[in-house]
Amino acid sequence: MSLTRNAGATAAQAANSRWLELLTRAGFIGYGIVHLLFAWLAVQIAFGKSGEEGNQNGALRTLGAQPLGKFLLVAIAIGLFAMAIWQAFEAVIGHRFLRGREKLFERIASVVRVIVFVWLGWTAIKVFQDASSNAADQQQQFTEKLMASEGGRWLVGLAGLVLAAVGIGMVIYGLKKEFERNLKTGEMSPRTRTLTRRLGMAGYAARGAVFAIAGLLIVTAAVKYDPEKARGLDAALRTLRDQSYGPVLLALMALGIAAFGVYCFFQSRYRRV
């Protein structure tokens, strides 16, 4: 029992590290920059002017091509890995200010965030090394191989349903303003709190919609045995563009993604870390 308590105390001490907090807050700034670039790519796709893939991988490659881009990629990668470590601690010992189902939900969400932050950090490193291939192509190729195996189409379909559910959950999370429970709202002025709330609602709703569309496309790929539809967020953006009023809808969604990018800057200051 004492060993367990000692391990918990050590984990709590590591989680409360000042350096980890500073790196995590810096990571939110990098995360915001990635989403602003993602939004810009979405606008380019909306009006048929982008050959870059419309996802975070494309955003990082766009950043890497700019002056000081390599330096920024390394800085963003460090911040993202710090965020992953922080969320790992949150999944195990965090969210102490919550109770019941809310606490369970946030811990599960923390596990998902760990995966996302590690993947993005690793992608940033690969882009820095000029070793990042097209992520949408990779996903399509992996899906094609998986569907060729026994039971593979069921696994692809299940993955699509999970992604769609995550997207829908993200939309609900944003519209119900549940993200505010993770913010130090008491330290905000009324104007800042209102702005942060609006940015969070628009940002989570837009991101959730893109994820939900991507998930449904993956399900469609499994049902119709069409791996070309399983290209993740890039396919979701391009499919939306090709619909009636698609460019306008995609431009509005890009504004929502940009709103999330700006919301990340506020998280850097006000997020409970």
UniProtKB/TrEMBL annotation:
<feature type="transmembrane region" description="Helical">
    <location>
        <begin position="204"/>
        <end position="225"/>
    </location>
</feature>
<feature type="domain" description="DUF1206">
    <location>
        <begin position="26"/>
        <end position="93"/>
    </location>
</feature>
<feature type="transmembrane region" description="Helical">
    <location>
        <begin position="154"/>
        <end position="175"/>
    </location>
</feature>
<feature type="transmembrane region" description="Helical">
    <location>
        <begin position="28"/>
        <end position="48"/>
    </location>
</feature>
<feature type="domain" description="DUF1206">
    <location>
        <begin position="111"/>
        <end position="176"/>
    </location>
</feature>
<feature type="transmembrane region" description="Helical">
    <location>
        <begin position="104"/>
        <end position="125"/>
    </location>
</feature>
<keyword id="KW-0472">Membrane</keyword>
<keyword id="KW-1133">Transmembrane helix</keyword>
<dbReference type="InterPro" id="IPR009597">
    <property type="entry name" value="DUF1206"/>
</dbReference>
<protein>
    <recommendedName>
        <fullName>DUF1206 domain-containing protein</fullName>
    </recommendedName>
</protein>
<dbReference type="Pfam" id="PF06724">
    <property type="entry name" value="DUF1206"/>
</dbReference>
<keyword id="KW-0812">Transmembrane</keyword>
<feature type="domain" description="DUF1206">
    <location>
        <begin position="202"/>
        <end position="271"/>
    </location>
</feature>
<feature type="transmembrane region" description="Helical">
    <location>
        <begin position="68"/>
        <end position="92"/>
    </location>
</feature>
<feature type="transmembrane region" description="Helical">
    <location>
        <begin position="245"/>
        <end position="266"/>
    </location>
</feature>
